[in-house]
Structures are given as structure tokens and as C-alpha cells.
Amino acid sequence: MTTALRDRAAIVGIGQTEFSKHSGRSELQLACEAVKAALDDAGLSPADVDGLTTFTMDSNDEIEVARAVGIGDLTFFSRVPYGGGAAIGVLQQAVMAVATGVAETVVVYRAFNERSGRRYSAGISEGIVTADLIHWSWYLPFGLLTPASWVAMFAQRYMHETGCTSRDLAQVAVSTRKHAINNPAAFFHGVPLTIDEHQASRWIAEPLRLFDCCQESDGGCAQVVTTLERARDLERRGAVIRGIGQAAAADQENMTSFYRPDITFLPEMDLVAKQVYEMSGLGPDDVDAAILYDAFTPIVLWQLESFGFCGRGEGKDFIRDGALELGGRLPCNTHGGQLSEAYIHGMNGVNEGVRLIRGTSVNQPAKHDHVLVTAGVGVPTSGMILGKLD
Amino acid sequence: MDKPELEATLRGFVGRETGPPVEGPDPVNEVMIRHWCEAMGDANPVYTDRDAAAASVHGGLVAPPTMLQAWSMRGLAMADLRQQQDETHSDQQLALHELLTQAGFPSVVATNSEQGYTRYLRPGDRVISHTVVEAISGEKATALGIGYFLDTRTIFRDPAGDELGWMTFRVLKFKPHAQPAAAAPDPAAAPAKPRRLRPPLGHDNQWWWDGIAAGELRIQRCRDCGTLRHPPRPMCGRCQSIAWDWVVSRGAGAIHSYVVLHHPPVPGYEVPLPVVLVDLDEGTRLVANLAGRKPAEIRIGMRVQARIEAMDEEMKLPVFHPAESGS
Ligand SMILES: [Zn+2]
Asked: What is the DSSP letter of A213?
């Protein structure tokens, strides 16, 4: 197990646009605004940037962003596939570039008009032409077209085996909403949610209800990654990346890994957990808060199990009594998560992870030495543990 | 013509002009501009109002840039091009389409076009277009069927040779998944019901869907180690053999998991729609719909039996039903 990337780079700047249902401007403009905000936050200028990385799904070319923002020469650019699974993968790219000297300061970004433009909930359609087209032939004619429907297939079996109920899933949504209430940037700022309201919400794909699903959103996010040497010269405190990893596990499909013997856990997230714990030398007991990718409620439970906060199938027991809330065992998604802040493919969660380390979250836990941040679930994915810059 | 031969011939077209330059039959003129603006609902006075245009940055009337291609189109004569070409000149684009039609790719659909404009055109300008076959893809599996993308680039120039603008045009020349029904459509018939989405087809799954069309639920089998695999893949993950055949499944199994779809509604599908993940008795899993049970009656572990049923006049799908008792 390599520890070559441990404590080699820090996130020194975070930026984001407002989150909305209709941005009214181009995805490129959202990307530029987020990148500029992240550089301002870091106290760096566009001329300091020599690397850019983003999602393969992002429509904003590196050179378009560079030219628009006034970033000059680039010596590093790369992309990471599999939707939200890339959220930490792009940071791993940045850390590798910085650690090897390929680049000194890398900006990662993601910006889209996912609500007002092409909506993922519209599902896969006949029009798409991609390399994984044949993959969809096994689902498309049967109507299994949306991310909610794919996650629901795993959730049904998980609930059958563990006794987890829709009310347990509601607990995830309610805990997260409690954080969004305090966050002015969140869609659900000031809007509480009760278990009963969750239970009364309509079915999307049984066993998932409306409030088990995230908010489709327009917006952009960006982070600035650089060496620890440079990070120490900057005025604002950065967050050190203690451990980081990507993973695709055996028999992986993109959202539809239905053919593994056991479909009630996430082998790829287990593999992320193994890497970030081994690299950082930390364990679940060292983690003070977490940003767990929450496009849908059940995936939070599966990640709690993958990262060893509880045993297999015990997610529903772990989250009782407010464990995921401020003051609980593991304050989680303190920005309101993708369920209640906005869905920016996990990148808004990365920004919140940095805020937690800096001590600037609107829902700031008292102890915040180490924060776990994860990326997309059900896809080849990634994760990291952030710590304080000494 | 086999595939390597076809593709070599196709490559020979790349870089060729599709034919001699084409000069538009009429110079840029106010009448056609006015017709265009009325049809498009474009009220910008710089196109149609001489006084307003004279006072604008243009200093006089200009044509809408998007008319660029219109000035060099051959008009109704295009319809007779196929006859003309034998007598006058060889049109490479037609030859290319004919070649692909002969090779079993009869259908064509325009997929995208882009234009760029170098300067505004004014009444009296003449437009001459030169079109080159810019690129031809390899064989692609698309949602419509297997085919080839053909890209052309047209440069529009004035008689002095100065560039006025350009246009790229991409078409897909393809073999459609299913042949249209032989009977002529009845014009009095009600509009067609929305149909279920078609499976995208390619080398690695066409044979499985051919099986469904023939009433067989097939499972891919490695010919070297005998491992069954679904969804199909070109290589055996256990022994790396690329030799495979299939067995025909009995279609019997038990529900491993399921979902009931409610939202969003998709044309061609009725909700609530149960989708089941079934452990087939042969050992592989299969996703399909379940009929004959209300959503609340579905249980994990329930025994089911697949039948292959027609969804519409063209497509069949496997559908699971509750198994007869005792099976
Ligand atoms: Zn084999």
C-alpha cells in the first residue's frame, strides 16, 4: 500500500457559484466564476495556476476555462470518468501532479446546468451515443432509466436483508435537512422536514420516495490544490489531504452492478476506505465529521458500513438518536448535503469538507481534526481524509 | 464487398471534393431576404428596411448570416440530381451514399451541422460553395443502428475566392434495428402509440436480441470453460477465451430484488411499473418487467417464469410472470 500521496498537498482555496434551478448563464461562465472564487479564497492569481482537472462529464474544456479566466500556460490537465464518482478522483489527479512536480498549483472544477439544461432524471434515452451504449440495452427497454431506479434496486434487497425501513431512510433525510436549515446557500435554507412529511412524499421508484432523492441543480464548484510548502505561505488555512484513493471493484458496472453475489454493500467503497485509512494511518475513530455522498438516502447507510462506523447492515441502528447531526457521533453533511443543499456532483461537499477543517461551517462541530469526504456511490468512485495544516 | 474492403474504399473518399464548385442560381437579393425574415419571424430592420440599415453600423442592407447555405442551394434541381449526375458529372457524395446503401446501410439521418460566418453578405453578392468529404468514421454502434458517420465541410466564397463562411454537416448512414412493417401505413389510423425504447445494438449484444426475436432467452457460455455470463461480454473473465456460444434458458427463477417505477413518466411505459432482478435457475441474473402481480404483492424470493412477449408490432421482450404453483 502506497503512502506516497500522504500529506503531499493541500486544498488552499474553495469557490462556488450560487446554487439554483435556473442559472440563466452558460456552464462555462459558471465554471469560470467558481474557479475565480476559489483562487480569490486561496489568495492566488490565475497566473499561479499550471494545472486543471475536471470530470469527463463536464462540458467545459480546460483550455476554454483557462483562456476565459486568464490562466496562462498549463503543464497538466486530465479528466476523471463516472459522474459523481469523480468528485475526489479529480483531487487525486491534482495531488499526484503536485506531488510529482508535474504541476505546482492545480484547480479542479465542475459546473453544470443540470436542472435547467440536460437533466439526469430524464434518464437514458435513445438519443445518446456513447461507448457504454450496449450496457444500457439491458435496462432501457424495461424502463429502468434513471439513477433513482438503479439505486432503488440495491436498496430493496438491502432493506429486505437488514430490516431497514423507509422510516429509517427518512432519518437520513431529516438529519441532513437540519443542517440545511442553517445554510443560506442551501435550497432548503429555513425549510424543516419531518419523518411524517418524508413518509407522505410520493414514490419515485419504490422503495425510494421524493425526499430520498437529491435536488437537481445548476451551479459550479472549484478547489485549488498546491504543495504544503506553498500552502504554508498563504494567509488562509488550507486543508491537508492525508489520504486519498479511487476504486472500481470486481464486477463493477456503471450504476447497475446487479450481478455480484451480494448486492447489499459497496465493494468499491470498501476499497476506497482501505486505501484512505492505510494511507493516512487513521481509522474510523479518528474521523470527527464526514461528507458522505448523498444523491439518495440509502447510500449514506452503505458508506457508514464501508468506512467501519458500524457493522454490515447496522447503518439504520447507527443513525438513530441523531448520530449524523451536530453533537452526534459523526456530524455528517453539515452543509445539508446533496439532499438539501444542492447536487453539484459531490463537489459542493468537498468545499464543505474544507470549511469543516478551517472551522468555518455554518454547522461547525467542536472537534474537527479529521474529515472524511466521499464521492459518487454505485459507480467507480473515490474518497479522502482531510486534516489540519500544521 | 467485405468490411475491410468497404472501409478501405470509404477512406478513399476522405479529402475529395464532392463535385465541382456550385454557384448559387441567384445573387443575394432583397426579395429572398424578405421571404426568409418573414418565415423566420426575424424583424431586425437591418435586413429589410433600407433607411434603418443605412443608419446602422452596416451602412446598408445585409442578409441574415444564417441564410449562407440558402444562397448556394440548387433549388428543385436537387431532386433530379441522381439523373443529372450520369449525364454531367460524378457527385462523390451521392457515390458515397450509394456505396453504403449497397453495403447494407440504407438509412440516413442528419446528426449535426455547424456554420461560421466570415462577413455579412449584401444584395448583389454571389456565393459559390466548395464541399469536401472531411471525415468518415469507423463502424459505430448507435442508438439507431450500426453505421458510419460522414462529415463534410463546405466553404462559401465570392467569385474573387474570398471566404464568406463555412458549414460542417454530419450524417449517419446506418442499418436500422428493425425493418419497417411491410404493410403500407393506413392514413386513417390513429397516431402511433408511443413505443418502448429500443435497445441500442452492437456486436456484443445483437445476437442476444436476435434470440428474443426468435423466442429464445439466451445465456452466453464460454466454449472453453463453460462459464455462463450475463450481461454478455466478448471475453471470458475466468479463462480469457473469446470462443463462446449460448444455452437457451428455461426462463425460470426467483426474484432477487425489484423496484416499482412511478416517476418520471416515460412515454411508452405505464406506471406503476415493476422491474425485477431475477436469479435464473441456470445461475445468471436478468433484469426485466414483472406482470401479473400488483406492486404490493411482489416479494423477494418469489418464483417467476419468463415468457417472451410482443410489446408492439416490432419488439419483443422477456416478461416475468408468477410461476405456476408446483413449478
Ligand atoms: Zn472461460
From this structure: B
